[in-house]
Amino acid sequence: MSVIYILLAVSIVVAICFFIAFIIAVKKGQFDDSYTPSVRMLFEDELIKNKTEKTILTKKD
């Protein structure tokens, strides 16, 4: 029974360590996306064209 308490304590310590590492990584900006905003302008035209084609088709019908 004492092994369960030891494993539980160790797993909580490991979980806290991973959580702290995650918080530090977020604060340092590791998960900031700097690529997508520069490419987003290339794909917006396709979305607008698709929307206008759909609206044109619905207006003809």
UniProtKB/TrEMBL annotation:
Q: Does the keyword Transmembrane helix apply?
A: yes
Q: In terms of domain of life, where is this protein from? A: Bacteria
* Membrane-spanning segments: 6-26
The alphabetized UniProt keywords are: Membrane, Transmembrane, Transmembrane helix
Cite the InterPro entries for this sequence: Cyt_oxidase_maturation_cbb3 (IPR004714)
Q: Which NCBIfam families does the UniProt record give?
A: ccoS
What is the name of this protein?
Cbb3-type cytochrome oxidase assembly protein CcoS
Tell me what organism the protein belongs to: Algibacter amylolyticus
User: Which gene underlies this protein?
Assistant: ccoS
